[in-house]
Amino acid sequence: MGAKNSYWFLVLVYTAFNLAQAVYLYIGFIQGIDRELDEAAIIDGCNDVFLLTKILMPICKPIIATEAIFVFIYGYEELIFSLILLSKPEKYTASRAMLNFTGEHSTDMEPQFAFIVSV
To answer: Pick from 55, 90, 96, 99: CA 20 to 30 A from residue 107's CA?
Structure first.
């Protein structure tokens, strides 16, 4: 399938694992919005695309930002899939590259801290 050492497949796996949480959060947020807002926009002649892009999208900015932060944190700290799917050192993610600073019996902390700051 060409999944080994492929960023696209890694993004697909991350998306699949974060999709359930995103749907759950978005549904909860959208259900908290008053239905009268949608009805008023439809009465004023708003079609579905305009309703979504001009009315609901600005209201949903907080949940979009929240989910973006959650996905970034998950992708940054996730290690298992990058260990399985990436074997070329130039394709390592940040968490996978941090393993280069650990040995069998010791951890070299100074270069690890410098790596964290530079990433």
So the answer is: 90
